[in-house]
Amino acid sequence: MFDVDTDRTLVAAADLVNTGEGLRSATPGLDQLTTVTQLKEYLSSRDPALRWPPSGADRTQLEKIQHLREKVQQIWSATPIKSDAPIQVLNELLRGVGLKVARGSDGEYRAEPVPASKELADVMTASMATAIQHLVVRDETARMRTCKGEGCDAVIIDLTRNRSRLFCDFGNCANRAHVRAYRARQAAHRKTFSTAPEAAAPVAHSSRHAVAHSDTLDSPRLVKPSAAEKAAQIEVPTSQSARAAKEFRDRMRDELMEKRDKKSAKKLKKEKKKAKT
Ligand SMILES: [Zn+2]
User: Fold this and answer.
1) What DSSP letter does each residue of 67-111 carry, written as one string?
2) Mean pLDDT computed over every residue of the chain
């Protein structure tokens, strides 16, 4: 999306935040960065082009990197950045970081950070702070998100061209959300066609209301979105092509789910018949 080095650093930053304690796809996850061994595991699964060698990990670096994680997490929870508070945190990370022009791993010239020292934590801090700075000055911090899955605090970095990434890779967040949306659409459909007069208000209305509400809400994004808010946002694609794609996906999914429902209804009937005989 940006340049290869910035992209992979942002992915590494999201992965670092996600080593923290929290809900991952509705499952409680423990802190995955409490020992030097765990830090080495995190470093070994990085892209080698980052040049963050696991051999640089020790107790001192672990503590510094835990501190870095806390700061990056603070910035992430304040995105999209509209105020100075997260910028101050970012500037703290950038303290002592220099700048030079060098060829990136793709051979292109670009501005590269010069870390305060060669210590692992300083190298990581310089890279991450510079990558986040890149998003801030381009007004792209909305790409630093929290997964929209219910019961999920995982952070994601959206590097897609059309800003379409909504879910993490931890579990089945996307699937669970789609099933929920399908059930909601079915309920709305049933309500619309039901004979009860007060049942005429379709679910779509309430979700539209929720979106309008969150749109007018101009508070900094430090508050975790509720499950209902998350579900409402999923239902509102931004661009026209995204809308068309979503409609198509919804239709396909509905057809698939209908087939599945029919199949299980048939099976149930068969089983009932069997039980009778
Ligand atoms: Zn998730």
Assistant:
1) HHHHHHHHHHTTPSP-SHHHHHHHHHHHTT-EEEEEE-TTS-EEE
2) 82
